[in-house]
Design goal:
The structure is a homodimer of 364-residue chains. With 364 residues, the first copy, chain A, is of the alpha+beta class. Helices cover 38% and strands 16% of the residues of chain A. In chain A, the strands form three sheets. Chain A has a seven-stranded mixed sheet, sandwiched between helices. In chain A, strands 9-8-10 form a three-stranded antiparallel sheet.
């Protein structure tokens, strides 16, 4: 992002701005605070694509009446360790935490809890949810489907979202292992960064609209598709397709949401699928109480040992060595709590626009 | 495998041979039948690397006293929807089904069941277990860790196994969606096939013992490592590493088994890790009753719709179009039930050796 200019903002100031923005669009106080917590967590953890940079899109969807600011989130079916939740077309940033909490409560009672969610919208970074579960000594899982970008192996058509998976495990003295990744080879955000830098894309990221491999971001945008993790059939792309399919089925087929190519996009003013096969998009949350398997401190000590042994892996030439899942985000958070959150100029412009819509003063 | 010669055997004859072999090594009758069922299922489904081709290794481990033929498989800790199981160093082919059954029973009672297993051994194809769960209208998951082959991204050392993940979803009129894949870019078996064919390996499969990308199977065998799914850091290799790590933690850290580089290899007569951090290798089974989320027939109908829409994806040039996860194995099974199971000459030799050890007549 060498060509971009940044401004730095404190997390606290941005968080207040986000919260006040949601309140201005009729989101209740507690829900607005929750939603702001997720977006700012993304910015703090260095996942710039999923934080305040998305506030304008949330606002547009609220303004257009495409998202319900005051949803009645309810369980529509349940057993002792499972539930299906209807998010009443609320913000995913509000529905997600409530559904995750239901999974956590079930795990406290029975050892585990599994919640599939329909009629919801984008829920921010998947990694936020297992971090909430960790506070209860629970291993948390989160998945969501998203609007279509990815072609299955041997297909040309966009059929699946980037469908992320997250899970986290707590250490005792070491920081937690936090896994959070999209099941496409790369996220759309990484393609955008290359485009802004004026660079070609590496092999294995995208196809053009004819299904040919391409190194041009423009080919993705003009009807092409993201490749699944593994990229080609020869190097395991069918596995990324399988994972994205698994997420699509657990989040959307199982909950009654729109699956695959029918998942509505995260935007008010682009292509909307011609047909609906359910309600909204879908999430899936899991919660497993560690004490359902092992003494909590024994498990955490074993995670510490795992982390230390993996950190000590013989490093590859020309690298800093092996990272533990969650390291990059933790390092980013330490830096950004100290130095503030860098926001690129186009996002600052969006936030000024948001301030105008919400009747707020922009921070700067 | 163009250079290999095959002999064809009926599944029934091979199955009997496997069962009688296990019985000859003091495995109780029901357990021997169960173990044979898993191995033959692998051969029928076209996964030649995990079926009867492995019988010699199982026999060697039984003969050397490295596997307990009569394990007392027991729950060492549980809550209503969770358990940890100690496999008493039994065959994974015996321990796995018992632990999977515990998960299924818990799902019947509470909606879901989650079982982490220590003190076990190789359990065959991961996909076998969710197919058992489907018979009860349950979505089943299976994972296992395995002996080390994979280097984490930015590492040179073998630290993780090929750690597979499987999950399956039933259709009503359509066949089930069956997902089963190793979290490495490719399995060791695919490297062996290229080696037998005298071909170079594609990019993105392996590193040599210095951590440099290699196209030689020999470089893998002489101290190199398999790359995780996604291959390089640029194309998402950290995601494959994350998935393999997730499997390692759920199967082995959480159960009390040996994790990461300490997982014992599937062989009696090769390198054994110098240190132990638990008991045996680990498995992890999940079971989710569909009726804990949605009416079973509604879900199955939605899966049918999903399958049909994905099959109708616009095909990529030069391909037969998009497959549904599980298609290749289902097609192989139909063919092999008709024409028999092809066994390559070196495996036939191994089976003759096994027959001698077990005091049995070989089929041919």
């Amino acid at each position: 992002m060498a060509t971009d200019t940044f401004q730095y903002f404190s997390a606290a100031a941005l968080r207040d701005f986000i919260e006040n923005t949601f309140r201005a669009f009729d989101v209740p106080e507690a829900d607005a605070a929750q939603a702001a917590d997720i977006l700012i967590s993304s910015d703090l953890r260095g996942i710039d694509s999923h934080g305040v940079a998305r506030l304008r899109k949330y606002v547009e969807m609220l303004e257009d009446g495409n998202i319900n600011p005051r949803p009645h989130v309810r369980i529509v079916r349940e057993r002792m360790s499972t539930a299906t939740v209807d998010g009443d077309n609320g913000l995913g940033l509000v529905v997600g935490p409530k559904a995750n909490q239901i999974a956590i409560e079930k795990a406290k009672k029975t050892g585990s809890g599994w919640v599939s969610v329909c009629n919801t919208n984008h829920f921010g970074i998947a990694g936020y949810y297992p971090l909430q579960a960790l506070q209860h000594d629970i291993i948390g899982w989160a998945m969501t489907n998203t609007g279509k970008w990815m072609a299955p192996i041997f297909g040309v058509e966009r059929m699946l979202g980037t469908n992320p998976i997250a899970i986290a495990f707590p250490g005792l003295e070491e920081p937690p292992v936090v896994i959070d990744f999209a099941t496409s080879a790369v996220s759309f955000g990484k393609v955008q960064i290359k485009q802004r830098e004026g660079k070609d894309l590496p092999d294995g990221w995208v196809l053009d609209d004819k299904g040919n491999p391409s190194n041009k971001a423009e080919d993705l945008i003009s009807g092409g598709s993201l490749l699944p993790l593994g990229s080609s059939a020869e190097s395991g792309g069918h596995k990324g397709y399988c994972m994205a399919a698994m997420v699509d089925i657990l989040t959307a087929v199982l909950s009654g949401a729109n699956w695959g190519p029918f998942a509505p996009p995260f935007a008010s003013r682009v292509f909307i699928p011609e047909e609906s096969v359910g309600k909204g998009i879908g999430h899936f949350f899991g919660a497993m109480a560690i004490d359902g398997f092992m003494d909590v401190d024994v498990f955490k000590t074993r995670i510490d040992e795992w982390v230390r042994r993996f950190r000590a892996t013989k490093p590859a030439p020309g690298t800093q060595g092996v990272l533990i899942p969650g390291d990059p985000e933790r390092i980013a958070e330490a830096e950004r709590r100290e130095s503030g959150i860098p926001i690129i100029a186009p996002v600052v412009d969006d936030l000024r626009w948001v301030a105008g819509k919400a009747g707020l003063n922009w921070i700067a």
